[in-house]
Specification:
Two copies of one chain form a homodimer.
Chain A: H1 7-11, H2 29-37, E1 39-43, E2 48-50, E3 58-64, E4 66-72, E5 78-85, E6 89-90, E7 101-104, E8 108-114, H3 115-123, H4 126-152, H5 155-169, E9 175-177, H6 182-189, H7 193-205, E10 210-213, E11 216-218, H8 222-228
Antiparallel strand pairs in A: 1-8, 2-7, 3-6, 3-8, 4-5, 4-7, 9-11, 10-11
Helix pairs in contact in A: 3-4, 5-8, 6-7
Chain B binds a DNA duplex (30 and 30 nucleotides) through α7.
DNA sequence: CGACGGCTTGATCCGAGTCAATCCTGGTGG
DNA sequence: CCACCAGGATTGACTCGGATCAAGCCGTCG
C-alpha cells in the first residue's frame, strides 16, 4: 500500500491520523519510529555528523539547529545538496557508503537511530516501509528541482527560489530566519558569496525583500519573488 | 531486509542470483517483474511518454532506444535530469503527480507496467519492495552527483564527466554511441550547444578523445578525462 | 574598546553565452 | 547513382553575467 505525504506533512505534526492496527502505524511513522528507537545527540557548530565514503549506519532527525549535506571536488569546490532543519530526517540512504558529508550548521540536537533497526521495524509495519521509500522519493524530488535551479536559473532567480523555499519550510512564512552563512547559501545555489550578497541587496533595492539583519530576511513582496521564480 | 545493488547490476543481466523462496525473488526482480506484468509499447522519436503534472500511473523499462526526462521553465529553458537507455527503469515515482516530462530521444520500445500492480506485488515480495526503494535511492544518488556537476564544475569537466558516465553505461567502454543530440547534451549539462561542441573539439585537439562522427566518440585517453573529472 | 569573522561593495576579468555564418551528412527524389 | 536539401553540428566574433580580486564595513564577543 502506497502512502504518500508531502514533505511538509512529514516535517510538521499533523492532527493524529487514522490509527491502523498498531500505534506505530500513524500518519508520520518515520520520525516517530526514529524518535522512539533513536538516541539524542548534540553536535556543535561545524562539526561533522558523517563523512562521504563512510559506511552507512544511522539515520538522523533534527530536533533543533540545522544541518548541511554536501559534496566536495578535489580542489575544495563545494556543492551543498540540502539544508535540514527542525523536524527533518536526513542521512537515510540505501547503499553501503555515504554519498555526501553532513555537518551541523549551528549547535544542534539530533536523534540518531540505527538504520538496520528502522529497516527491521519496517518489515512488520507497511506504513513505515512506505514512508522510508516515500522519504527517499521526496529527497529525489527536491534534488530534481535543485537541478533545474543549478542548470538553468540566473542568479536572481536562484536567490528568489531559495528564499521562497526557506519561507515555505517554517510556518513563519514571511519572515525568514537563516541559520546558514552567505557562504553556505552560495554553495547551495552554485554561486559565490559576493553574488549572493549583491543579489540580496538588489532585491532589497527593488523592494521585494527587507534585510533587517544579515540572518533575517523579510519577504515583503512574495509576488515579485514568485515572478522571478520563472 | 535491505538488498543493495549498483546501478549497473540492475541494468545489465547478472548471472542468475541465489533464488530465494519464489522465482520472483531473484537478483533483479524489478525489471523482471516489470517485464512480466508490463505491455510492450513503441514511441517514436520526440514523442512524449508522460508529461510533468500528469497523474502517475505507470512505470517503464527501456527495451530499445533511449529516453530523456526533463523539466522546463516558463520561458522554455530546459533541464534534462537524466537519460535512460536499454535496460533502465524510469518513471518510478511515489507521489501522485509526475515531477517531470519523459520523451523518446529516438524511436524506442518500452515495457509499460502499472505502478499499482508492481506495488501490490511488492507486498508479497520483500526483495521487490527493497528494489523499488533501492531504485529510487539510486536515482537520488545520480541526481546528487549531477548537482555537483551543475553547481560547481566547469564546461570541460562537465563534458568529461558526461563522456565517462556514458562509457560506464554500455559495456563498450571506450567507444561511446550517443543516442542524443548536442542540444540534449547541452540541456543535460547546463551549457549551450555551442559550448558543448567547442568543448568536444577542444578535447579532440588535446587528444583526449576522437570524434569519428558526431554521434560516436572514442575515449582514447580516459586518464586525461578522469583528470578533468576533478 | 578592539579585533575578528562575516558581510557588503567596488573594479576588473573571463568563461560561457549570444548572434551569425558556414559546414557537414544522411536522407530523398530524379 | 548522383545532386540536392534540411537539420544538426561546428566555428567565429563579440557580449555579458557572474567570478575574482581587493578594500572596507559592521556586529558581536572578549
Amino acid at each position: 500500500m502506497l502512502h504518500q505525504e508531502t514533505y511538509h506533512s512529514v516535517r510538521h505534526p499533523v492532527p493524529m491520523g487514522f490509527p491502523r492496527r498498531s500505534a506505530a502505524s500513524q500518519e508520520r511513522p518515520l520520525s516517530e519510529a526514529l524518535t522512539e528507537v533513536g538516541v539524542r545527540h548534540r553536535y556543535s557548530r561545524n562539526s561533522e555528523i558523517f563523512g562521504e565514503g563512510e559506511p552507512v549506519e544511522n539515520v538522523y532527525l533534527v530536533v533543533s539547529g540545522a544541518v548541511r549535506t554536501y559534496k566536495l571536488l578535489s580542489d575544495g569546490r563545494r556543492q551543498i545538496g540540502d539544508f535540514h532543519i527542525q523536524g527533518d530526517v536526513f542521512g537515510l540512504e540505501v547503499g553501503d557508503e555515504r554519498q555526501f558529508t553532513a555537518e551541523a550548521i549551528a549547535d544542534s540536537v539530533v536523534m540518531v537511530a540505527s538504520r538496520s533497526a528502522l529497516v527491521s521495524m519496517a518489515n512488520d509495519d507497511t506504513s513505515l516501509a512506505a514512508e522510508l521509500w516515500s522519504h527517499t522519493a521526496n529527497d529525489l524530488k527536491r534534488a530534481q528541482d535543485h537541478l533545474l535551479l543549478l542548470g538553468r536559473k540566473r542568479a536572481q532567480e536562484r536567490v528568489a527560489t531559495f528564499l521562497l523555499d526557506m519561507a515555505g519550510r517554517n510556518r513563519a512564512d514571511i519572515i525568514v530566519e537563516l541559520p546558514m552563512s552567505r557562504q553556505d547559501i552560495a554553495d547551495y545555489l552554485g554561486l559565490t558569496i559576493e553574488t549572493v550578497s549583491r543579489t540580496l541587496t538588489r532585491l532589497e533595492d527593488d523592494e521585494a525583500i527587507e534585510i533587517p539583519s544579515s540572518r533575517r530576511i523579510v519577504l515583503s513582496d512574495k509576488r515579485a519573488l514568485r515572478r522571478l521564480n520563472a
